[in-house]
Specification:
The chain is of the alpha+beta class. The protein has three domains: 69 residues, Arc Repressor Mutant, subunit A; 94 residues, Alpha-Beta Plaits (2-Layer Sandwich); 71 residues, Alpha-Beta Plaits (2-Layer Sandwich), CATH 3.30.70.980. The protein is built from ten helices and ten strands. The protein has a four-stranded antiparallel β-sheet with strand order 3-1-2-9. The two termini are 16 Å apart.
Length: 251
Amino acid sequence: MSGHSKWANIKVRKGKQDAKRSGLFSKMIKEIYLQAKSGPDPNLNASLAAVIERARAINLPKENIERAIKRAAGGTDAAAFEEITYEGYGPEGVAVLVRVVTDNRNRAAAAVRHIFSAHGGNLASSGSVAWLFDRRGVVAIEEIPEGKDRDEFLMLLIELGAQEFEDDGETIEAYCAPAGLPALVEAMRNLGITPARSEVTMVPKNLVRVEGHAAEKLLKLLDELDDNEDVQEVFANSDIADEVMAKLGEG
């Protein structure tokens, strides 16, 4: 995760998740399958194109990607996956979105409810939390092209389709409409720019600062949600100090 970025606190536990490679691969394959059900051609399906981009970023083998798309196009699988979003609150009133893809709604609901309850949180009614987030495409760039200063590079990103930025001096995060993410990433690569990370994510409109014991308790809640086999993504509008994030990352 980038040290001081707002996104680092939004996409929960990214560093530790990357270490759990087999589980991450499994979730990514399920995500590719789900998005490919709406159309197997990434040139015509922006959501699938964005997921394939994420899969390549974690080095998911090409044959695994192709196999998942082929399965979705064939429509012969017995498992009927459905996508569900659960909304809730964690410690200090932090808003939490949990995106689930499951073949067993009852199992997923019971697990998510239990995790919230066990860590001082609670589920909320549909719509009570989702309005606090915007769905956006985001690209993180850690190295700008040689010969360009930072201001010139930001202007270039605008020309390529970026709508706004966050720049902490080390990492630039460029935001765009979700459907525009694949084109933005492709345009960058055509100019020799390799993004450190790109994905469609949920960006909070406002952040809640969480410190001390409450921050550790919140991170345990988010971590356990993220580890659940049915949970694809977890988002929270928390702002947690880097040292707390680093401490848990060492655990």
